[in-house]
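Researcher: For the annotation table, I need structure tokens for Acetyltransferase. Please keep the output clean. Sequence:
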Amino acid sequence: MVESSGNQDSPLMNGNTPILGLDVWEHAYYLRYQNRRPEYINAFYNVVNWDEVSRRYQAALA
């Protein structure tokens, strides 16, 4: 499931098990990317540890 949360809410607050999180509030990227949010998102995917994401996904399924 893909979940978007507002304000400072977290998937943990609903009892969900997050396997990957991306902060897209401006404070997360503005100093380096200014208003180029898509560039920030692309850079994020280049540093994700996909083996860890897979491990967390498998653990969530168990």
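Researcher: And a one-line annotation?
Model: The radius of gyration is 13 Å.
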